Amino acid sequence: MSITATTQRRPPALSRIAETLTAHSIDWLRISLGLVILGFGALKYFPGASPAEDLVQRTTDVLTFGIVNGTAASVGTALLETFIGLSLLTGVGLRLGLAAMAGWLVGIMTPVVLFAGDMFPDGLPTLEAQYVLKDVILAAAAAVVAARVLGARYVIADDESEQR
User: Fold this and answer.
1) What DSSP string runs through 75-105?
2) Other CB atoms within 10 Å distance of the CB of residue 90
3) Which of 30, 57, 126, 164 is deepest in the core (most CB within 10 A)?
4) What is the value of pTM for the model shown?
5) What is the dihedral of CA 72, 75, 79, 85, to 10 degrees?
6) Which of 77, 34, 35 is closest to 52 using CA atoms?
7) Is the distance from CB of 89 to CB of 33 less than 8 angstroms?
8) CA distances (Å), origin 148, targets 23, 100, 105
9) pLDDT tens for residues 107-152?
């Protein structure tokens, strides 16, 4: 005798795992995102410590039409990343932090457009290009966190709706 799809149940251990992930995974994502961005920002306070320092300075120089360049570009970016990272870590000022992050994400992705020839010589990505392209993951993580902050909820589907 076989069990029909509508009478199958999720094993209790899987249910507990699903409940834990539902309750906490987006907070874990928010905190890990905050740690990564705060870490990137912290490096920029120390000249020569960030592998993206030159790229940050060149990009900021172009985006601000030469108004902000050099060390000021690095420190400004460091301050912005510190603010975003701390807001994600603590949850304080999170909406403002996410709004700042939206602008930051645009800024950190622009080198692909501004310096495409430098970043993809012979059509292959340089280390700098790879550094920038990995930011797509940060953008996706930010979208999940922003959805939660704006009211989206992550829920466990019941066994019957999973079978549909």
Assistant:
1) HHHHHHHHHHHHHHHH-TTHHHHHHHHHHHH
2) 12
3) 30
4) 0.85
5) 140
6) 77
7) no
8) 12, 17, 18
9) 999 999 999 999 999 999 999 999 899 999 999 999 999 999 999 9
CA atoms within 13 A on the CB side of 142: 25
End-to-end CA distance of the chain: 22
The whole-angstrom separation of Cα 110 and Cα 32 is 24
Task: Map tokens 């012979």 to a residue.
Answer: 122
Spell out the domain ranges in the chain.
Answer: 36-154
Q: Which amino acid makes up residue 88?
A: L
> Which amino acid is residue 126, in one-letter code?
T
Closest CA to 38 of 128, 99, 104: 104
Residue 164 structure tokens? 């549909």
Q: Give the tens place of pLDDT for each residue, 41-89.
A: 999 999 999 999 999 999 999 999 999 999 999 999 999 999 999 999 9
Nearest by Cα to 94 from 146, 23, 42 = 146
Is residue 56 within 8 Å of 109, Cβ to Cβ?
no
The two tokens of residue 139 are: 């953008």
Helix (H, G, I), strand (E, B) or coil at 53: helix
